[in-house]
Specification:
single chain; about 140 residues; alpha+beta; CBS-domain; 3-stranded mixed β-sheet; 5 helices; Diverse_CBS-Domain; CBS domain; CBS_dom
Length: about 140
C-alpha cells in the first residue's frame, strides 16, 4: 500500500530561525505533535512536543507572573531558535516506500512520526504519524 493513503501532505513546518515560542504555538494551534524544520523545502530537523516540554512552563505562566529576572530567563528560553533544539538526525522515508516500512522505522527508532521525502528533489512532501496509521487501519476494519 502506498504512503499516499496515509501521509499528511498539508504540512505545517517551521524555518530554523523560528523561536521555541513560535514552535509551541504552532504545535498547539495546529493540534500536532511533530513539527518538521525546513530550509528551502528541505528537511533539516524535527521538533516534537516532547522536545519542547521544558519550554512550556514559561509560556503557560504567561511571563507576567515572573519577577524581572524570571521574566528575562523565561523570554530567553522562549526566544531560543528551533535550530538549537531540533533533532537534526531525522528518521525519514522516501515516498516510494510502503506503509509497512514506515511502521518498521517507527518501531525500530521509537518515533511517533516519520517525514516523507521525495528522493529526486529531496524535498519534504509529507509526514506519517502513528495517528495517521491508526486512522487508516481503523478505516480498513
Amino acid at each position: 500500500m502506498s504512503l499516499d493513503a496515509v501521509m499528511t501532505t498539508d504540512l505545517i513546518t517551521a524555518p530554523p530561525t523560528a523561536t521555541v515560542r513560535e514552535a509551541l504555538r504552532l504545535l498547539e494551534d495546529s493540534d500536532i505533535r511533530h513539527l518538521p524544520v525546513v530550509n528551502d523545502g528541505h528537511l533539516i530537523g524535527i521538533v516534537s512536543d516532547r522536545d519542547l516540554r521544558e519550554y512550556r512552563v514559561p509560556l503557560l505562566l504567561e511571563i507576567d507572573h515572573f519577577d524581572e529576572a524570571g521574566r528575562d530567563r523565561a523570554n530567553d528560553l522562549l526566544d531560543t531558535r528551533v535550530a538549537d533544539v531540533m533533532a537534526a538526525d531525522v528518521v525519514s522515508v522516501d515516498n516510494t516506500e510502503s506503509i509497512a516500512s514506515v511502521l518498521d522505522a517507527m518501531i525500530e527508532y521509537k518515533v511517533g512520526a516519520v517525514p516523507v521525502i521525495d528522493p529526486e528533489s529531496e524535498d519534504l512532501v509529507g509526514i506519517v504519524s502513528y495517528i495517521d496509521v491508526l486512522r487508516y487501519a481503523r478505516s480498513m476494519l
